[in-house]
Amino acid sequence: MAMQHGTAGRLRIDLGALVANYRLIAQQVAPASVAGVVKADAYGLGAVPVSTSLYAAGCRHFFVAHLCEAATLQPHLPSDATLYVLNGLYPGTEADCAAIGAVPILNSLEQIDGWAALARTLHRALPGVIQVDSGMARLGLTADDLATLRVSPERLAGIDLLLVMTHLACADDPDDGFNVQQRTTFNAIAHQFPGVPRSIDNSGGAMTAGVGHGDIVRAGIALYGGAPHGQPNPMQPVVALDATIVQLRTVDAGAGVGYGLTHRFDRPSRVATVSVGYADGWPRHLSNRGSAYIAGVRVPIVGRVSMDSMALDVTDVPDAVLRAGAPVELIGPHQTIDDVAAQAGTISYEILTRLGHRYARTYLPAPVATPDRSIMA
Questions:
Q1: Where does 94-252 show beta strands of DSSP type E?
Q2: This prediction's pTM
Q3: CA 22 to CA 24: how far, in whole Å?
Q4: How buried is residue 266: exposed, middle or buried, by Cβ count under 10 Å (0-12/13-18/19+)?
Q5: pLDDT above 50 (res 3)
Q6: Residue 141 phi, psi dihedral angles, 5° rounding
Q7: Which sign, positive or negative, has the C-alpha torsion 103, 104, 105, 106?
Q8: At what angle do helices 143-151 and 109-122 cross, to 10 degrees?
Q9: How far is CA 101 from the centre of its chain?
Q10: Residue 53: its pLDDT value, please?
């Protein structure tokens, strides 16, 4: 159990909200299934509690980035859950992947050849997923690779293709015309793999109305409460984060605060030093531009965010609620992960994945209910 006192702050993760978001996405994309993207320790929120909660809600497909993540998660999921490795396999790791029953995303001819070679050695078919590049130029088979497969289909011998997939580059902006271009390109490519289920949508694509969602959508940031695109955000917030006031002081007009004294006060002010810094994942880019809330009052971050602390101007907060040990809302009802990301000039994915391990973590359980088999993923 995490220590509740003497920590940087308190991080609350609402697994009930997570499951509600899963179900909302499932309703949006039905009859497609919803897979949980749980890479990077479920975006920093804990792959084991997140994945087991999603499994209890009916999810059966889980995507991680690296084989080591699959190996860590596999013992915690029942045997009918499928773990997919998005980055595929480095040469020499194929046997390790087969040993734990993970499914590699095959992004290159070299990865295909390595996986097919192991299948021949084991004298059995091995499951795999083909990823194709439909325009993002990141991972996946190129047009030349696909042409090679067309003339040499035997390279896929021994591979049981579970999916053909691609990744949308601009799904966070549903009005971007490149989305249509990618969907058209992908659908044309997918005909090269007749009868194989298709996966194209991430969170942004899944929450876009009026498009075909394929057979499996890969939900990531939307599961964790981030806006799939724009506002209003239909997802329930999953994360709340409170820091703690370590010390209060009064400063004169003209006084500076923090490294480099990058902020100077234009009036006599009250300053609260709180217990979260960039070592806890709170971006240094929030220096002199971010904010927090105390008793519903917005308080600006003043000076530079330090490794273990930062300063807030609390002059406008009633004295009755100011004391050492008092909670300070960093993520919560007054500012979301998307609000914090905007202040820091980044995206909500980075805010979540940077949250450190010095917080006392509390998981609010999801309600126990019979899974809805109509949205089973």
A1: 103-106, 126-131, 159-165, 198-199, 216-219, 239-251
A2: 0.93
A3: 5
A4: exposed
A5: no
A6: -65, 135
A7: negative
A8: 40
A9: 23
A10: 98
Q: How far apart are CA 283 and CA 289, in angstroms?
A: 11
User: Out of 22, 43, 259, 293, which one is annotated catalytic?
Assistant: 259
DSSP state for residue 368 in the 8-state scheme: P
How wide is the angle at C-alpha 161 spanned by C-alphas 156 and 163, nearest 5°? 135
39 carries an active-site annotation:
yes
User: What is the pLDDT at residue 4?
Assistant: 55
* pLDDT tens, residue by residue, 117-150: 999 999 999 999 999 999 888 899 999 999 999 9
Query: What phi and psi, each to the nearest 5 degrees, are found at residue 360?
Result: -80, 115
Q: How confident is the model at residue 366 (pLDDT cuts 50, 70, 90)?
A: confident
Q: Which of 39, 224, 293, 359 is catalytic?
A: 39
* DSSP H or E run through 34: strand 33-37
- How confident is the model over 152-183, as pLDDT tens digits? 999 999 999 999 999 989 888 888 888 899 99
- Tell me if 178 sits within 8 A of 204, measured CB to CB: no
SS3 23: helix
What is d(CA 265, CA 82) in angstroms, rounded to the nearest whole number? 56
Q: Which two tokens stand for residue 359?
A: 């917080």
What pLDDT is attached to residue 230? Answer: 81
Q: In what order do the strands lie in the sheet containing 126-131?
A: 198-199, 159-165, 126-131, 103-106, 82-85, 61-64, 33-37, 216-219
**231 pLDDT band (50/70/90 cuts)?**
confident
Known catalytic membership, residue 259: yes
Name the one residue in this structure whose structure tokens are 């083909």. 130
- pLDDT, residue 377, reads 40
Are 271 and 316 in contact, with CB atoms under 8 Å apart?
no
Buried-exposed string 6-23: b where 16+ CB fall within 10 A, e elsewhere: ebbbbbbbbbebbbbbbe
Separation CA 370–CA 280 (nearest Å): 37
HSE-CB at 154 with a 13 A cutoff on CA atoms is: 2
* d(C-alpha 69, C-alpha 75), whole Å: 11
